[in-house]
Amino acid sequence: MPRPPRPDDGAPGTDETAPLYRIKAELFRCLAHPTRIQVLEVLAADADHTAPVSVLLDVTGCEASQLSQHLAVLRRAGVVTSTRSGNAVEYRLAEPLVAELLVVARAFLLSNLAGASDQLEAARRLPALPGASARAVLDATTASFPSA
């Protein structure tokens, strides 16, 4: 049986690596709301990974104050950036890697929904997430499921 890591041996969870795990946990914490995932998928689906707040409001159905709070969480985590032009504010994925993360998450979702045909069909109607190299993972996963 492997021994648990000790604080001085550089293994995961030690003083040296603990901050990295906290950063990663914060990333996943910022993703832990359906509205924030929806916002990120809208941004990922756009060729430039951008969308104005007006589009995000329409797609999510949120009140402006609610959406503003969700966007602030994503900004603080460094997942999105924003630019203002007059009264318009546009949001952008901070890194194209976020789009890849979403594709892999969708592939994981579809894999777990294999036995739930109603939910699987709803998942297939989600907006496309083009341009991510992990798209092959999603395509391979969805190809293995029978059509409803």
UniProtKB/TrEMBL annotation:
Domain HTH arsR-type: 16-113
SMART domains, alphabetized: HTH_ARSR
Keywords carried by this UniProt record: DNA-binding, Transcription, Transcription regulation
Domain of life: Bacteria
SUPFAM superfamilies: Winged helix' DNA-binding domain (SSF46785)
PROSITE patterns: HTH_ARSR_2
Membrane-crossing residue ranges in chain numbering: none
Molecular function per GO: DNA binding; DNA-binding transcription factor activity
NCBIfam families referenced in this protein's UniProt entry, alphabetically: HTH_metalloreg
UniProt protein name: Transcriptional regulator
Native organism: Cellulosimicrobium funkei
